[in-house]
């Protein structure tokens, strides 16, 4: 595997390129050199043999002329001289020279082992052509033993008449041996050049691949998040410029990643601490992000939420979401969010969530917004859907406030309409003739007066509540004795208490000093509480008013209490009590447990609301405890400002 990786590297490719270039160059040079040298050696060899044959033909011409002129014994001797001359002067290594007469008979040969051919006729084509006076007669061939030879035949005779021919058969092995030696030298030189080229290629390619490997190593480190090292710049060439550019890119990347991490931390902090829930889904409608508030609203955990369909998480179908965006009612389902929701316009739906630990439903407004990516869905499209963001807003308080507002308007309208209707009916009766009957007219006028007083009380209570809500009510505090204040309250209701045979017991902690408060408004609170206690306590019942001091809770104190106490006043009866389902709404405006009885008793339904607002204006608190059939206890606390009272 190591060698495979090496041959796949740039270094190996560079070395192979260098070696191939040298090999191709040497091959081209060698082929050209061998071919040129071979042609030159062959031509020189053949020219040399032709010159030797021509010289021998000139020399042998005198012997052949004398032989034809003197047909005696001396001619034979002259042929022997010719044979000796040929063997001594024109001897050629690995060659045979024959002198042939005009009839084609071999007169002499240079090879001792081939003396048997002397006197026989040579019928070679080259000889025949030479005897015909043709001068250029040569041929190269390969002998039966594989030896490459050349045949040359030259005519003897300087004139028109041909006296004979010179026939030379010469081996060319020396030429080819020389060529082979030169080829071996060339191959050896090529191999040496290739080895040196490979070594130089390794050295030279290392100067290129080593910086590239360093850049690759650093790029891997950057991919793993390590930015503490830089690539060494070894020169000002292209690789050096690449190293400088890489180092610059790494610095910019580190800055960008650092900025991205900061932005990511900021975004994560914003998402975690925002009051609205946020859920992000991908283009397939699968949840990829949910913040802490959304998990609290939906009461789910992140492990089971990530990856599930957004529609299933919210319990809403795609059609319901689209319908809710058009103002229609939403239904419950488990399908994923429809891609149609991913448009430029945000779409909103309202959900009601019922949790086991809560009795009342949770109202959640869900706003869907599409996420757009730069990649289009198809050809020619500029942008596509990248997912959906759902923003969850807990609007339970707003819904309750809106419901309270609607109920308040309805109650006010009803409370005003009832007396107005009564007054109108009695006035119509008086107009129709009842005015002529004094006794009946007086009764009608009395009823109209009572209803008018009731409307005045209602309007007065509403104005008072309005001032308290808008902080326009003036709280004029004065030093007040608590025991005296409670006794006066009991005196104001003594007649009603005697009529219903209800006993009242007042308990004040001994030694309690005077307190600073708005006497008139606190009297209004006490009157309201005592009046309610009398209304809902049966005859023969009892009412208990208790006043004492309690410690004020203080988070900065290790004991849990501060030194400044609170005045606590409670009004308790043993009447009919209040059902548990009505306790949480008892202080709401116009809220009545028994609406018919309360209205008959002249109540407006605003007494407890006004009492709570007055106590809050003093910086105190009020709460109610009750059990159906066992009675009710209303307790309120006020800051016990002894220093102001002393002044």
TrEMBL record:
Record-annotated membrane-spanning stretches: 15-34, 185-208
Domain of life: Bacteria
Organism: Paenibacillus cremeus
EC number: 2.7.13.3
Residue intervals of the PAS domain: 263-307
Molecular function as annotated in GO: ATP binding; phosphoprotein phosphatase activity; phosphorelay sensor kinase activity
Catalytic function, reaction form: ATP + protein L-histidine = ADP + protein N-phospho-L-histidine
Protein name, UniProt field: histidine kinase
Gene name linked to the record: walK
Membrane topology category: Multi-pass membrane protein
Primary subcellular site in the record, as a coarse category: membrane
């Amino acid at each position: 595997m190591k060698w495979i990786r090496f041959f796949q590297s740039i270094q190996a490719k560079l070395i192979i390129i260098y070696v191939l270039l040298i090999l191709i160059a040497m091959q081209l040079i060698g082929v050209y050199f061998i071919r040129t040298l071979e042609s030159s050696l062959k031509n020189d060899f053949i020219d040399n043999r032709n010159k030797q044959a021509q010289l021998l033909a000139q020399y042998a011409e005198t012997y052949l002329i004398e032989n034809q002129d003197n047909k005696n014994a001396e001619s034979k001797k002259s042929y022997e001289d010719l044979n000796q001359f040929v063997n001594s002067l024109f001897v050629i290594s690995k060659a045979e020279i024959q002198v042939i007469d005009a009839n084609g008979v071999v007169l002499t040969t240079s090879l001792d082992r081939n003396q048997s051919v002397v006197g026989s006729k040579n019928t070679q084509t080259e000889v025949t052509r030479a005897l015909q006076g043709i001068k250029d007669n040569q041929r190269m061939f390969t002998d039966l033993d594989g030896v490459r030879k050349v045949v040359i035949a030259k005519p003897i005779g300087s004139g028109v008449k041909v006296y004979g021919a010179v026939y030379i058969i010469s081996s060319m092995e020396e030429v080819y041996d020389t060529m082979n030696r030169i080829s071996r030298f060339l191959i050896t030189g090529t191999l040496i050049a290739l080895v040196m080229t490979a070594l130089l290629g390794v050295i030279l390619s290392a100067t290129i691949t080593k910086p590239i490997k360093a850049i690759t190593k650093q790029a891997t480190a950057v991919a793993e998040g390590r930015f503490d090292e830089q690539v060494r710049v070894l020169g000002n060439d292209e690789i050096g410029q690449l190293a400088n550019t890489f180092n610059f890119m790494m610095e910019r990347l580190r800055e960008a990643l650092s900025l991205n991490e900061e932005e990511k931390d900021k975004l994560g902090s914003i998402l975690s601490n925002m009051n609205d829930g946020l859920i992000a889904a991908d283009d397939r409608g699968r949840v990829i992000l949910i913040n802490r508030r959304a998990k609290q609203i939906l009461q789910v955990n992140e492990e089971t939420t990530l990856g599930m369909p957004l529609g299933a998480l919210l319990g809403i179908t795609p059609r319901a979401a689209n319908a809710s965006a058009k103002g229609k009612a939403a239904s419950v389902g488990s399908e994923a969010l429809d891609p149609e929701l991913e448009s430029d316009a945000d779409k909103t739906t309202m959900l009601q969530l019922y949790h086991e630990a809560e009795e009342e439903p949770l109202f959640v407004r869900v706003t869907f917004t599409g996420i757009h990516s730069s990649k289009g869905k198809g050809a020619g499209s500029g942008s596509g859907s990248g997912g959906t963001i759902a923003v969850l807003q807990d609007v339970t308080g707003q819904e309750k406030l809106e419901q309270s507002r609607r109920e308040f308007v309805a109650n006010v309208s009803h409370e005003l309409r009832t007396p107005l209707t009564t007054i109108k009916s009695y006035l119509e009766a008086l107009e129709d003739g009842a005015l002529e009957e004094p006794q009946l007219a007086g009764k009608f006028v009395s009823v109209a007066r009572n209803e008018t007083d009731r409307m005045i009380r209602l309007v007065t209570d509403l104005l008072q509540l309005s001032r308290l809500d808008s902080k326009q009510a003036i709280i004029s505090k004065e030093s007040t004795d608590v025991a005296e204040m409670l006794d006066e309250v009991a005196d104001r209701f003594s007649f009603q208490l005697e009529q219903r045979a209800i006993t009242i017991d007042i308990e004040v902690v001994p030694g309690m000093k005077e307190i600073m408060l708005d006497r008139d408004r606190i009297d209004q609170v006490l009157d309201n509480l005592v009046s309610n206690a009398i209304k809902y306590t049966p005859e023969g019942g009892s009412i208990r008013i208790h006043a004492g001091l309690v410690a004020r809770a203080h988070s900065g104190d290790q004991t849990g209490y501060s030194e400044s106490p609170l005045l606590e006043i409670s009004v308790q009866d043993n009447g009919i009590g209040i059902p548990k389902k009505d306790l949480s709404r008892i202080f709401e405006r116009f809220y009545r447990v028994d609406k018919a009885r309360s209205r008959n008793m002249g109540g407006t339904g605003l007494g407890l609301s006004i009492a709570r607002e007055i106590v809050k204006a003093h910086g105190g608190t009020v709460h109610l405890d009750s059990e159906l059939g066992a009675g009710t206890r209303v307790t309120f606390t006020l800051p016990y400002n002894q220093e102001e009272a002393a002044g």
